[in-house]
C-alpha cells in the first residue's frame, strides 16, 4: 500500500555526496578570512622592530621576541601608575563582576522559572522586552543615580550597575525551563527548603548556563574603558582598557600597541575555547518562544 | 465579570485542600477568597522566598536600567544643562531635532545606512555559516565555530591596530599597496579620510566581527533539531539540503531566529564606538557620525541633557518598534 522508491533514494544519496566537500571548502575559506586579522594581531605582538614594517605582510615571525611587551612596561615606567596596577584592577574587577553576576542572575532565574507567584510572568516579560533597551541611551540619568549613590570612584561602579544583565538572565531562565519540575518537587518532598533547592539543585544544574553568561559578558567587562573615564578620578582604580585607550598611536609604538591589544583580546578567546561545549549546550535553549 | 469568575474558581480549588487538612474552613475562606486583591496578597505571602531571590536582580534592573530610561524620557521635554533646574519646554527638543538639526539627519541616515546593511547581512550570514557548520564532521565543529566567533570577542579598540594598517591612507596600507601593485589604481585611496569610503570601511569591519551571540545560538539550535525529522522528510520525498532547510531547519530554529534578531537589531542601531576608533570623532565632514555619537556629543560634551534625551528617546523608539515587529513576525505568541 505504501512503497518507497528505492532507486530514487539511492540516486538522492549519490547526488549529495559532493555537497559536504563544497561546504567544507567554503567554510575553510571563510574561516581563514575571519581568523586572519586575529592571527595577524597575535603574530605582530611577537615581531621584532625590523619585521613589523615588512611588505608584503608576513603571517609568521622569523625571530619571535618579547620586546614589545617589555616596551609596554617601559612606556608606563614614567607615568604615575605602573602598567601592572591597571592589569591587576582589570583582573579583580572582572572576577568580582563575574561572581556577582552569576549569583544575582541564578538567584533571580530560579523563582521566575519554577515558582508561580503574582507578577512573575510579567517581570520575565519585562526582561524579554528589556533585551531591546539601548544601554547607552540614558547615560546622564544613570550618571546622576550612580554618583548619588556614591558608587563613583570605587571598584563597585564597575560591578553593580551592570549586574542586571537581561541577556544572561534570559538565557539562565530559558535553560532552567528545560529542567523538569519533578526534580524540584522530589527535593521538596525530601524536606529541602527553598534556599537548599536553589543551592543544591538549581545552581549545579545551571553550570553550563553560567559558563555562557561568563563568555558573553567577559569581553565587555575586560575591555571596559568608559567606566574608568566617566566615574573614576583616582588613577589607581582605573582599568587596563582605559590605559590602552590612552596609548598614543603612531608607527613607533606599533609593536607595543599590538602587545597591549593581544592582552586585551586573548583572555576572551581563551575563556571561549575553555567553555565552548557548555556554551553550545545553553545556547540550544536560547530561543524566545 | 469574566475575571471575577476565574478568580472564584482558583481559590475554590485551594480551598478544597484546606478542607481536607483543616477543620475550620470558614475562617480560612474569609482570608483570601473575598477579592482578587486579597487572593493576590495571600499568594504573595506564601512566595516570600521567591521575591527575596529575585530582589537583587530587579533592584539593580530598576535602579540602573529602567529608572534612567524613564528619567530620560521625561527629560526630553525639558531644557536641562545638568547644573540649573530643568525648564519645561514641551516639544521644542523634538521640533529642533527633526526640523533644524541637520547633523542629526546626517547621523540618522548614516545609522540607517549601517543598520540596513549590517543587520540583515550579518543575520543571514550567521544563519548560513551556522547551517554549514552543522553539516561538517563533529570534530571540526569547535574549530570552525571558534574561527567565526573569535572576531566578535575582539573589541574595536583592540583590533584597530590591525585595521588601521590594513586601510591606511598612504601607499603603506595593505589594501592600497595591493591595489597599486595590481595596477587597479594609480594613487592610494584615502579609505579613512574620503567621505565616500568612510561608511563602507566601517561596515566592512563591522561585518567581519558581526557573528556574535546570535550565531552561537544558531549553531546550538541546529544541533537541537531532531534528526528523525530528516528521515521522515526523506520518505516524503524531501532530498535536497535546500528543501530540508526550508521545511525543517528554519521552522525548528524559529526561537533562535527571534533571539538572534533581537540582538542584531539592538546591535546594528547602536553603532558608534567602532566609527570613533576607525575614523575618529568628529570624522571628516561628519561622514562617520552616528546617532549614538551625536547623542554622546550632546550628553557628554555640551551638557544639553534634555536634547540628548530626546535623541535617546527617538533611537529607543526606533529599536523598540523594529524589535516588536520582529516579535510579531517570528514568535507565535507575539
Defining key terms:
heterodimer; A: mainly alpha; 15 helices; B: 334 residues; mainly alpha; MetI-like fold; 17 helices
Structure description:
The complex is a heterodimer of chains A (289) and B (334). Chain A has 289 residues and is an all-alpha fold. In chain A, 69% of the residues lie in helices and 0% in strands. In chain A, α2 (19-45) runs antiparallel to α15 (254-283) and α12 packs antiparallel against α15 (254-283). Chain A folds into two domains: 17-65, no CATH class; 80-283, MetI-like (MetI-like fold), CATH 1.10.3720.10. Chain A starts with 5 loop residues before the first helix and ends in a 6-residue tail after the last helix. Chain B is an all-alpha fold and 334 residues long. Chain B has two domains: 2-90, no CATH class; 94-330, MetI-like fold (Orthogonal Bundle), CATH 1.10.3720. Chain B contains 17 helices and two strands. Chain B has helices at residues 2-21, 25-32, 36-46, 48-75, 92-100, 102-133, 141-153, 156-166, 174-182, 195-208, 213-224, 228-235, 241-252, 254-269, 273-279, 291-301, 305-330, and strands spanning 78-79, 87-88. Chain B starts with a helix and ends with a helix. Chains A and B meet through α1, α2, α5, α6 and α7 of A and α3, α4, α6, α7 and α8 of B.
Number of helices of chain B: 17
Please identify the top-level CATH class of the largest domain in chain B.
Mainly Alpha
Radius of gyration of chain A: 25 Å
Task: Report the CATH architecture of the largest domain in chain B.
Answer: Orthogonal Bundle
What is the CATH class designation of the largest domain in chain A?
Mainly Alpha
**Roughly what is the average pLDDT of chain A, rounded to an integer?**
85
CATH architecture term of the largest domain in chain A = Orthogonal Bundle
CATH H level, superfamily name of the largest domain in chain A: MetI-like
Number of DSSP-assigned strands of chain B: 2
Choose one word for the global shape of chain B.
flat
Number of helical segments with 4 or more residues of chain A: 15
Biggest β-sheet strands, sense, barrel of chain A: none
In total, the number of strands of chain A is: 0
Amino acid at each position: 500500500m505504501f512503497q518507497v522508491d528505492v532507486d530514487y533514494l539511492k540516486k538522492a544519496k549519490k547526488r549529495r555526496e559532493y555537497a559536504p566537500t563544497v561546504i567544507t571548502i567554503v567554510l575553510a575559506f571563510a574561516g581563514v578570512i575571519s581568523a586572519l586579522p586575529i592571527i595577524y594581531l597575535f603574530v605582530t605582538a611577537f615581531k621584532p622592530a625590523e619585521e613589523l614594517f615588512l611588505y608584503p605582510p608576513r603571517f609568521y615571525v622569523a625571530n619571535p621576541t618579547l620586546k614589545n611587551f617589555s616596551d609596554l612596561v617601559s612606556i608606563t615606567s614614567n607615568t604615575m601608575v605602573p602598567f601592572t596596577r591597571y592589569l591587576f584592577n582589570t583582573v579583580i574587577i572582572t572576577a568580582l563582576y563575574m561572581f556577582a553576576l552569576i549569583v544575582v542572575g541564578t538567584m533571580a532565574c530560579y523563582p521566575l522559572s519554577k515558582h508561580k507567584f503574582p507578577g512573575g510572568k510579567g517581570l520575565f516579560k519585562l526582561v524579554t522586552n528589556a533585551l531591546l533597551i539601548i544601554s547607552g541611551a540614558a547615560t546622564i540619568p544613570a550618571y546622576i543615580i550612580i554618583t548619588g549613590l556614591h558608587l563613583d570612584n570605587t571598584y563597585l561602579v564597575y560591578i553593580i550597575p551592570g549586574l542586571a544583565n537581561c541577556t544572561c538572565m534570559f538565557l539562565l531562565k530559558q535553560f532552567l525551563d528545560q529542567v523538569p519540575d519533578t526534580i524540584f518537587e522530589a527535593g521538596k518532598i525530601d524536606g529541602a527548603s527553598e534556599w537548599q533547592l536553589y543551592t543544591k539543585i538549581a545552581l549545579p544544574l545551571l553550570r553550563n548556563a553560567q559558563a555562557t553568561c561568563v563568555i558573553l559578558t567577559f569581553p565587555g567587562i575586560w575591555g571596559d574603558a568608559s567606566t574608568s573615564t566617566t566615574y573614576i578620578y583616582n588613577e589607581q582604580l582605573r582599568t587596563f582598557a582605559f590605559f590602552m585607550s590612552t596609548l598614543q598611536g603612531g608607527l613607533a609604538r606599533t609593536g607595543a600597541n599590538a602587545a597591549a591589544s593581544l592582552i586585551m583580546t586573548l583572555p576572551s578567546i581563551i575563556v571561549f575555547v575553555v567553555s565552548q561545549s557548555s556554551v553550545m549546550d545553553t545556547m540550544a535553549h536560547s530561543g524566545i518562544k | 465579570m469574566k475575571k471575577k469568575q476565574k478568580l472564584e474558581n482558583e481559590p475554590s480549588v485551594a480551598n478544597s485542600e484546606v478542607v481536607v487538612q483543616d477543620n475550620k474552613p470558614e475562617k480560612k475562606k474569609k482570608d483570601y477568597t473575598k477579592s482578587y486583591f486579597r487572593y493576590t496578597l495571600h499568594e504573595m505571602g506564601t512566595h516570600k522566598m521567591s521575591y527575596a531571590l529575585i530582589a537583587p536582580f530587579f533592584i539593580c534592573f530598576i535602579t540602573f536600567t529602567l529608572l534612567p530610561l524613564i528619567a530620560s524620557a521625561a527629560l526630553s521635554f525639558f531644557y536641562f544643562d545638568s547644573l540649573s533646574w530643568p525648564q519645561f519646554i514641551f516639544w521644542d527638543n523634538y521640533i529642533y531635532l527633526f526640523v533644524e538639526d541637520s547633523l542629526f539627519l546626517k547621523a540618522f541616515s548614516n545609522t540607517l545606512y549601517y543598520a540596513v546593511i549590517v543587520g540583515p547581512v550579518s543575520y543571514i550570514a550567521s544563519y548560513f555559516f551556522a547551517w554549514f557548520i552543522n553539516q561538517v564532521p563533529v570534530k571540526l565543529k569547535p574549530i570552525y565555530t571558534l574561527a567565526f566567533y573569535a572576531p566578535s570577542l575582539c573589541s574595536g579598540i583592540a583590533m584597530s591596530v590591525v585595521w588601521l594598517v590594513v586601510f591606511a591612507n598612504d601607499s603603506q596600507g595593505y589594501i592600497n599597496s595591493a591595489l597599486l601593485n595590481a595596477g587597479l589604481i594609480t594613487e592610494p585611496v584615502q579609505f579613512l579620510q574620503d567621505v565616500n569610503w568612510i561608511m563602507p570601511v566601517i561596515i566592512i569591519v563591522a561585518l567581519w566581527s558581526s557573528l556574535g551571540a546570535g550565531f552561537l545560538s544558531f549553531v546550538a539550535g541546529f544541533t537541537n533539531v531532531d534528526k528523525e525529522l530528516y528521515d521522515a522528510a526523506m520518505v516524503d520525498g524531501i532530498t535536497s539540503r535546500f528543501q530540508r532547510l526550508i521545511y525543517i531547519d528554519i521552522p525548528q530554529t524559529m526561537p533562535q531566529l527571534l533571539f538572534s534578531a533581537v540582538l542584531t537589531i539592538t546591535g546594528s542601531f547602536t553603532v558608534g564606538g567602532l566609527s570613533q576608533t576607525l575614523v575618529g570623532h568628529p570624522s571628516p565632514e561628519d561622514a562617520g557620525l552616528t546617532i549614538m555619537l551625536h547623542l554622546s556629543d550632546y550628553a557628554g560634551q555640551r551638557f544639553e541633557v534634555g536634547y540628548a534625551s530626546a535623541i535617546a528617546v527617538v533611537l529607543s523608539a526606533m529599536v523598540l518598534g523594529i524589535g516588536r515587529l520582529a516579535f510579531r513576525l517570528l514568535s507565535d505568541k507575539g
